[in-house]
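Honest question from a wet-lab person: if I give you the sequences of every part of a complex, can you actually get the arrangement of the whole thing, not just the pieces? Trying it with mine:
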Amino acid sequence: MSSVIKTPLPGTFYRRSSPDAAPYVEEGDSVKTGDVVGLIEIMKTFHEIRSDADGVVARFLVDNEELVDAGQDIIALELG
Amino acid sequence: MEKVLVANRGEIALRVVRVCNELDVRSVAVYSSADEDALHVEEAGESICIGPPRALDSYLNIDAIVQAALHSGADAVHPGYGFLAESAAFAHACREAGLTFVGPSADAIDAMGNKAAARQLAERADVPTIPGSDGVTSVAAAIELADRIGYPVLVKAAAGGGGRGIRSARDADELRAVFEQAAREAGAAFGDDSLYVEKLLDHARHVEVQVLGDSRGNIIHLFERECSLQRRRQKLIEESPSPALDAETRAAMAAAAARLARAVGYESAGTVEFLLDGSGAFYFIEMNTRIQVEHPVTEMVTGVDLIKEQLRIADGRTLSLRQDDVVVRGAAIEVRVNAEDPAQGFMPSPGEITAFVPPQGPGVRVDTAAYAGYRVPPYYDSLIAKLIVWAETRTEAVERIEGALAAFDVEGIATTIPFSLELLADDAVRAGTYDVAFVERRLAESGRIRI
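Yes, you can. This is the full assembly:
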């Protein structure tokens, strides 16, 4: 079974909390519901994107620093 | 000056473009690909796309903007506020390219950009700074200092930040107790137990003074703006005159601001920010070396067009007025309208504005670049409009802006209008007795603690 994590907000997608930090998650990592998987910068503010399911990160569907729309798919999850 | 490139977007870019049009100076708009449909682009004489939506790639891209200015044959650059307005590197790059930067010298921007240097400059210009000391390491020295500057004081971790490692003390006994506590905590949290002491300003207000300086060394002030209604250090509502100042304090604060501006050889429009405590004492915080968002408040009570003055000054002309010509008449209030949802923790609310009907009437001004059908992009500041009113008295001005704000129809996106209406209905705001912590306190009381 697979699923996708979407961003509720439009803006710029980041995979890390700051330019020097390690990415929140990598492909192949296990995540639990509520884990932070990315950050959206919108109107000079930052909002965390959290996983809405338990699973394994199969694939990032957007690049780091890519501009995204509200509702856009961010991460493909293999549900576990 | 024949052609001005406006290195900004939104309402301030539109405002500068319109002043250029009024002065028969040609204007050049720059825009990111997210702003193709922006009004500042439409109303400027010409326009140049400077990059993709991300500000770093467009409105913060010094090379792209300087190239656009040279390519368009502009001879001056107006930076607006935000983005590169307080970048000494940008001011320098413009001047290196032979362009007039509509603002102060790179040196003045630098001098005021460094907090420690600015504080020293202020002290040398006999402008009061918040009493305190860096590097107080002993309880005895702290108590001696506190006796001198007066209680209450704040004990702060030298290595601290984000509000952590701060304790207040109202007398020597309490200071002795919290000092040891704070040192232990600071040591554990930051690996450094050194502390410093600063006077705690209870019920402080944020009051700032508008200054103008020309290239001939003339410096004037245009009195104050009261900006204490803030959330997360973002101003929401501003007014002039400040209801907190008596005539004597007003004159002293304005004179102090002018002294500081003179001390740095300030050119163009600038703002000197102060904290005012309950006793009427005021202390320098910082100087903003640019035009400010809330500049219309000053324009409404003085009748001076600050953008026009900036362009005059940059053109090498003298100020159009002397200090004695600056007279404050009536009262003005500004409410910022942001694309944020106050019902959801002030969550940004970009998207298409489906209806946009700004209020009108005597003494009502709206600075905006929004319109029905406009899409508020998610990439930039959330400010979509500024509503400013003027009236003979403060009471009338409060009533007028309340009515105007209630009539301001924005549909399709959430805005801060309902929250500002709540603030304007509050007794403390009507009486003019609020302080810088007022908005956060009200939000906490009503259970809508910030998220």
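Two things worth pointing out. Chain A touches chain B through eleven residues (CB under 8 Å). Residues 12 and 67 of chain A are 4 Å apart (CA to CA).
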